[in-house]
Amino acid sequence: MSTPLWIFDTTLRDGTQGEGISLTAEDKVKIALKLDAMGVHYIEGGNPGSNSKDIEFFRRVRELNLNAKLTAFGSTRRKNSVCEHDVNLKHLIESGARAATLVGKSWDFHVHTALQTTLEENLAMINESLAYVKNSGMEALFDAEHFFDGFKANPEYALAALSKAKEAGAAWIVLCDTNGGTLPGEIGEIVSRVVREIDAPIGIHTHNDCELAVANTLAAVAAGARQIQGTINGYGERCGNANLCSIIPTLQLKMGYGCVSDEQLKSLTGVARYVSEIANVHMPVNQPYVGNAAFAHKGGIHVSAIMKDSKTYEHIEPHLVGNKQRVLVSELAGQSNILSKAQEMGLDVNPENMKSREVIDRIKELEHQGYQFEGADASLELLLRDAYGGTAQAFIVDSFKIMVERTGGAMVTEAIVKLSVAGEQVYTVAEGNGPVNALDNALRKALVQYYPGIRDIHLSDYKVRVLDEKDTTAAKVRVLIESTNFKDTWSTVGVSSNVIEASWEALIDSIRYALLGMDKDEYVPEFVGGTHGLSNH
Amino acid sequence: MSTPLWIFDTTLRDGTQGEGISLTAEDKVKIALKLDAMGVHYIEGGNPGSNSKDIEFFRRVRELNLNAKLTAFGSTRRKNSVCEHDVNLKHLIESGARAATLVGKSWDFHVHTALQTTLEENLAMINESLAYVKNSGMEALFDAEHFFDGFKANPEYALAALSKAKEAGAAWIVLCDTNGGTLPGEIGEIVSRVVREIDAPIGIHTHNDCELAVANTLAAVAAGARQIQGTINGYGERCGNANLCSIIPTLQLKMGYGCVSDEQLKSLTGVARYVSEIANVHMPVNQPYVGNAAFAHKGGIHVSAIMKDSKTYEHIEPHLVGNKQRVLVSELAGQSNILSKAQEMGLDVNPENMKSREVIDRIKELEHQGYQFEGADASLELLLRDAYGGTAQAFIVDSFKIMVERTGGAMVTEAIVKLSVAGEQVYTVAEGNGPVNALDNALRKALVQYYPGIRDIHLSDYKVRVLDEKDTTAAKVRVLIESTNFKDTWSTVGVSSNVIEASWEALIDSIRYALLGMDKDEYVPEFVGGTHGLSNH
Predict the structure, then answer these.
(1) Which domain holds residue B226?
(2) Predicted TM-score of the model (pTM)
(3) Nearest residue of B to residue A471 by CA position?
(4) What is the pLDDT of residues A507-520, one digit of tens each?
(5) Last residue of a domain, one of A366, A387, A408
(6) Which residue does chain A place closest to B222, by CA atoms?
(7) The CATH number of the domain where B449 resides is what?
(8) Which DSSP string corresponds to B212-239?
């Protein structure tokens, strides 16, 4: 039997303190449902005393019957006051949450400097506030803010703060490394001491200011902490909170603790990506366990080894966390990368045959020209499918024209596109925010009548990189386009000395790839009779 | 006296194994110069045996007289062969680098599965290859690949591999957690054991697959490792390498080790951002120590506390690593910075006067719209000069028009510009590689007759970034343009929902800034009489 741990997710509260993270009540409800399905034990929903958005969230989430304990966050009562008159505590109790986390001071410096009160009054604030919340029928948790800094400065006082919380009946005492400056060795030592001296369930809450939040959490668990506070993708104030997406799999797969079920662990990558979508924050490609490159192999030697046995360069099996292996094709890679990629796509490849040699030569030639396929999986897939004869041309572009004009401060951008689709000529014009956007709009306008599904696709990122800086007059540019249909994301590449041409190439690849997905089996256009009006398919 | 450590940077080698990281030889030279100035002890430049780009880099960098030891990377010799016939080792020796790192196997599983040779042959490969490189006059380092996995599987064999390297005269024996799956406790224990048994200087090389690369490096140092291998911003294969930007300050500011000088440590944030710019990889805002939000405070309670004493919510003083505090509620990064910038330019600023308040409000407003002046000093300087009345408009653009057309595979891009210069109307047309290039050409053609010096200026880089916006149809783009006159380099910025408009803004700023330099004292156009012919000034 593995030792059970309690996962306390604070994405919806501490996570939103991160720069650029802002969640509506609706966003929070969506995320809470995902977290609940993944099996976290506590979901800290926000601070109902601080804003109406959080009050709305708590109202809506009550109807959802979550398995997780919904938790509201607030501070201990104001100094020189009583709990009964504290508006913040009142909101907390009225939130309808099953549990409340109260944050209080455990560092004497903070009591003097930030609170500007006496050490005794702070202890009374902790004790009375927790007892008050508990008496209201809620489970009461104590977040001992700056506990580690406090312990280093004045261990007796820091421990006294914890004792006061325990006396008040706190269900959990959570040790916070609020400033994120403590090292794993110190965390381990101090948590051991607390576990010996305070007879209450202990939790850990760390921040990532030294890139050590995960290590600090693991050190605390090894020393006896049993509740883990953190956020999805490590969102949070400054450098973020402890990243549950790294902590849960390490505890469960490598250290023998039980956090969630094996099935729930497989949802981790999906949850991480979902939350990053909702928060509209780009997920770093190299994020551990759940990132798109977490099991991506680029070096040629690495690739030829993983084809023999993936254990050679993978610390766990990616499917355990719902992620998958990828092979990146780049100039650093050998042909083994390309062949494994083609196999992954179900193409019949044989390293010996002429076709495979031709494809590899073609990719090498393109890379030499400045193409880079490691960030453009979809372009590579099209190239391989074309080479092995798997795709037809869904449409042919006869010509296009773009006009950008600025007179008197107003900017107009238009694109005209002439296409052949399903034996017909289509001629469309559209405006846009720029030449590429106008082209994209004109293309969609032409194609939507044949492929209505194209409406769900949009460009999510657009990057331009100038190649060969030395020879500036003939400088080439590489354009990378990322597209999404809210479910999948794919990337395409174009290279040219003309930025419009490079963008155009990437754009056409993006749309061709999307069409591939829409009608993969037969690849017959969803042609809707002779009319060019919008179809209802 | 603090214990000295040796910093081994492998951004240019292992860093480029990261997805989306691709550096030209020119990029690598630029980064090497920055790393050298920051005081790293080894700079691993690449694998001269693998591609011509790395060979070119090694050729160019030899002329730079770096303080750091330039290091070339390669593998131990091929199995069942001799060093004298090994092309890879030949390239290594011919690279002109002062040191060579040879990677070899120390995990028996890998010897069988990946190398497909005998355990004995692998030991011979290690021993002979290192001795061969050392005999050529280079310092020889041994990277023991998968050492920790190897030690756990077969400690005797893993240690035997190290002994063979030591026998051959390796200057450093570097223990690699290649798959990034080892935990800090295991790292500490195993390194202690190695330090006891192998009498040679020990290095550590970790990967971030469990988000533990930094913690693992620190654990190894605490156990006796003295060389640290890592990359700037943690770039590298899969989840990346150990991030030197987090490791160096923690070792130096918190653990009492000596890595670089205090002054060099202050360049850390600048180097991190420079490398991310060159690599064209977005730096996560919450990156520890060097990220833009690393010392950014959003929570209201936090902000009021840091106003009393910044130690309340900051684990170190940000200036120690060249970063700065930001308060997100007021949006603006250090108005004192802006005022000191204006003073630096010789402008008469007084924080009390109305003008200064207006400028700060204007910059705040622009930052809110997505402008970023950190990478666009020239735009900031123009903005400040304009505000304090220091500049006249050298020219006024009445209108412009761009046409891009593609028919039958040929691409034509033209721009027409109508300007007022020195009281005259100028109307020019030019072709280009793309709309921005055509605009640039038409502008120059119009201005060269008045400012002949403009001939020496060209765009050296052009970057487009889509800003994170929830509303994707109205997504804004930020364009950064870098220009050079072969002596100086300056950067300008433009933001708009239209990429051409954003480019146009940055372009106009670039030219205005150049003209400022040309005629700084009086700012009178070098007007050459009534003719529009080329002048010889």
Answers:
(1) 3-260
(2) 0.75
(3) B460
(4) 999 999 988 866 53
(5) A387
(6) A185
(7) 3.30.160.270
(8) -HHHHHHHHHHTT--EEEEBGGG--STT
